[in-house]
Specification:
Blueprint lengths: L4 E6 L3 E7 L7 E6 L3 H15 L4 E6 L28 H9 L3 E5 H12 L7 E7 L3 E7 L2 E2 L33 H5 L1 H8 L11 H21 L3 E5 L8 H13 L14 E2 L7 H15 L1
Parallel strand pairs: 1-4, 4-5, 6-9, 9-10
Antiparallel strand pairs: 1-2, 2-3, 6-7, 7-8
The chain binds zinc ion.
Amino acid sequence: MGQLLGGIEAGGTKFVCVTSSQPGVIAQRKVIPTTTPQETLGAAIAFFREHGPIEALGVASFGPLVLDRASPDYGQVAATPKPGWTGADLSGLLAKALDCPVALDTDVNGAGLAETRLGAGQGLDVVIYITVGTGLGGGLIVNGKPVQGLTHPEMGHVRVRRHPDDLDFKGVCPFHGDCLEGLVSGPAAQARLGHPLNDAPLDHPVWSLIGYYLGQLCATLCLVASPRQIILGGGVMSNLSIFPHIRAACAEALNGYVQSAAIGSDTFIVPPGLGDRAGALGALLLAEDLLAR
Ligand code: ZN
C-alpha cells in the first residue's frame, strides 16, 4: 500500500471525488453535483475527511483557471459564465481545509496525463487530449507533462473554415461567435437542432458537420504541435461514428503536406482508452506528481 491520495475531477455539472493508494486503482468514489462553490467544495472536503487523511490532492478542473504561480490569484477559477464560480479559490480552500498540498490543472490536462500514463497514449512523447461536450477544451502533454505557459492552452476556440452548407449559423461562443466551440459544442448543436445532439439519429448530417470542423482542429494541431496521437473524449464523442469524419477532414485539410503514414491511420485520431475514468485518474496523477517533486 502506498500513500493515500485524493483526486477531484471538477466538472461544470458534477465533481467526482476519489481516493487511491495504488496507481490506476480507485479506492473510494463519490459524485457531487456542481452547485455553489461553498456547497460543492464543502461536500468534497467532507468526503476526503471521512475517507482520509490524504497526503496530497490533485484537482483537474473546468476552467478557465489561473495557473500562473506568480499571480496573486493562483489557483482560482478565472472569469467563467458559471454563476458564483468566478474567483473561487479552489486550491487555497481545499489545501487549508484538508491540510495537504494541492495540485491544480485543467480537466483536459488531467485526462491527457492519465491517457499518456495509463490509457490510449501510453509511451508517446507528444499527445493531445480534446474534450467535446458542453465546451471544447484541449490539453497538450509533452514528455509526460501538461504544457502550461502564459495561461493554459485553449485550443477549442480556434477559428475554422466554414462548411459551404453551414454559412448561416452564427455560432454560440459568447466571446467569438463561430469559433470551433461555438460551432460544435453541445449548446451549439442544441441551437442548430432545437433539441439535444444525442437525440439526433446517427445518420443525421450534423454528425459529419461536427466531424468536418473537428478534423480541421486536428489538422491545425498537427501543424502546430506535431502530436503522435490526438485523443477525443467528452459527451459528444460518445458517438464513435464521428471519428471517420474527423480523420477524413483532417487528411483533407492537410492535403498530404505532413508526411507521415500515421496521420491516415485509425490509431492517430482515437477515442480515450480510459473512457470516462480519465479525468479522475488524471487528478490522482497530479497529486502523485506533486509528492514526487
Ligand atoms: Zn470561442
